Structure formats: structure tokens, C-alpha cells
Amino acid sequence: MAIDLPNPIAAYFEADRQKGAEAIARCFTENAVVKDEGRTYTSREAIRRWKAHSANKYSYAAEPVAIGHDNGRIIVASHLVGDFPGSPVDLRYFFVLQGDEIAELEIVP
Questions:
Q1: Cα→Cα distances 34→78, 83, 107, Å
Q2: Which DSSP helix (H) or strand (E) runs through 66?
Q3: What are the pLDDT digits (tens) for 90-101?
Q4: How far apart are the C-alpha atoms of 45 and 41, rounded to whole Å?
Q5: CA–CA separation, 69 vs 64, rounded Å?
Q6: Which residues make Cβ contacts (< 8 Å) with residue 86, sequence separation at least 6?
Q7: CB atoms within 10 A of CB 83
Q8: Residue 102: which residues within 8 A CB-CB, separation 6 or more?
Q9: Which of 5, 67, 81, 99 could form a disulfide with 88 if both were Cys (CB 3.0 to 4.6 A apart)?
Q10: pLDDT tens readout for residues 33-71
């Protein structure tokens, strides 16, 4: 079932499907922060490198399945399938938007 995502978040998941690290980085503000797997990436360039590395390391597909809100954050539940350890897994993506861009993203199991 398709869910209605805000435009910056829909652009993020579409760029992720295309494995486009540059396109993903453009979804974020210049000084955005991403937290994933215990690491923090600050700046659009650091986010581009993070996605380029993960796209080269594993093949995967993320399918958003639900959306909610909590304390100013948009929570997207997604089912992730790929060739990474522990696949498949359900992840939660906590987004903070700033205008038409993503200012923060935290990804947790």
C-alpha cells in the first residue's frame, strides 16, 4: 500500500531507490544531520559520502509502509530487504523538515 509522504521525504526514498547519493544529499539542508548505525554525519557532503558508501556496500530496497508524527518529527516505518546482515528488517526513519529540505534524519531498528 502506497502512503502519502511529504515531498522531501518522498524524494529521499525515490533517490534511495535509484542509489543516487548525489540526489539523496540534495534532499538535505547544507548543515543537516543524519544518525545511522551509531554514527553521525553532519553536512550535505558527509551525507553524500554516507549514502555512496552504503550503496556500494549492500544492495537493498526500502519500502515505506506507515507514517506518523512525534514531537515535531515525522516517523516513517519502512521494510528493508537486501544482502546485508539481518535482512529483512523493519526500520523507523525520524525526519525533521526545514522548508522543502530535510534538516535531520535518524534511522533506528
A1: 17, 22, 8
A2: strand 60-70
A3: 999 999 999 999
A4: 9
A5: 15
A6: none
A7: 9
A8: 8, 9, 12, 27, 28, 29, 32, 95, 96
A9: 81
A10: 999 999 999 999 999 999 999 888 889 899 999 999 999
